[in-house]
Amino acid sequence: MYNNIDFNNKTILITGGAGFIGSNLAFYFQENFPYSKVIVFDCFRSDEIFPNDNLKSFGHYKNLIGFRGDIICGNINNQTELALLGCPHPLKSDTA
Question: What is the pTM of this model?
Answer without folding.
Answer: 0.72
